[in-house]
């Protein structure tokens, strides 16, 4: 079944290096990252501080005018964690995984950033990496080690959502 490959794929933890950690957006609550986004940011900061990446690229726009963009919230959080502003880029217009990746590709090109470790939740990895490859990005998965799911029910709900989105994207690829 497809959802098992989504589970297994998200468990892969390749010991890779890349030019940049590409952090896929998640909710920001005002100027604070949501717990999901905070885990992604912390994971990217760890990759940076361990020397596995030289850049962190944050993605994600704003849910509505007047709120800070997810990417900007992520960058500020990482700055407070000790990552220099000169090692970070923020793509703050996107609202979907596809747009996160596509806009980040355009943003990073002038900086010579060619390889990426994608940072997101484990269950999101299979779809995100497939989309990245479809966009021509040289990307490997780097899932967060913790997740937002505190109950089996919330985990199962997200798994079903990701399975639906992954299968839908695969069908879209075939039909386009």
Automatic annotation (TrEMBL):
It comes from the Bacteria. GO terms for cellular component: plasma membrane. Residues 19-162 form the DUF218 domain. PANTHER family: DUF218 DOMAIN-CONTAINING PROTEIN (PTHR30336:SF20), INNER MEMBRANE PROTEIN, PROBABLE PERMEASE (PTHR30336). This is YdcF family protein. It comes from Paludibacterium denitrificans.
């Amino acid at each position: 079944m497809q959802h098992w490959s989504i589970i297994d794929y998200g468990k892969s933890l390749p010991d890779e290096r890349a030019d940049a950690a590409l952090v896929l957006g998640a909710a920001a609550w005002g100027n604070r990252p949501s717990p999901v986004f905070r885990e992604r940011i912390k994971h990217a900061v760890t990759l940076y501080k361990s020397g596995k990446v030289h850049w962190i690229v944050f993605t994600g726009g704003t849910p509505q005018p007047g709120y800070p963009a997810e990417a900007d919230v992520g960058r500020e959080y990482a700055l407070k964690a000790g990552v220099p502003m000169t090692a970070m880029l923020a793509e703050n217009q996107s609202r979907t995984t596809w747009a996160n990746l596509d806009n980040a590709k355009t943003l990073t090109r002038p900086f010579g950033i060619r390889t990426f470790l994608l940072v997101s939740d484990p269950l999101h990895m299979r779809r995100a990496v497939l989309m990245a490859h479809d966009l021509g990005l040289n990307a490997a998965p780097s899932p967060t080690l913790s997740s937002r799911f505190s109950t089996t029910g919330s985990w199962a709900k997200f798994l079903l959502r990701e399975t639906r989105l992954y299968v839908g994207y695969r069908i879209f690829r075939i039909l386009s």
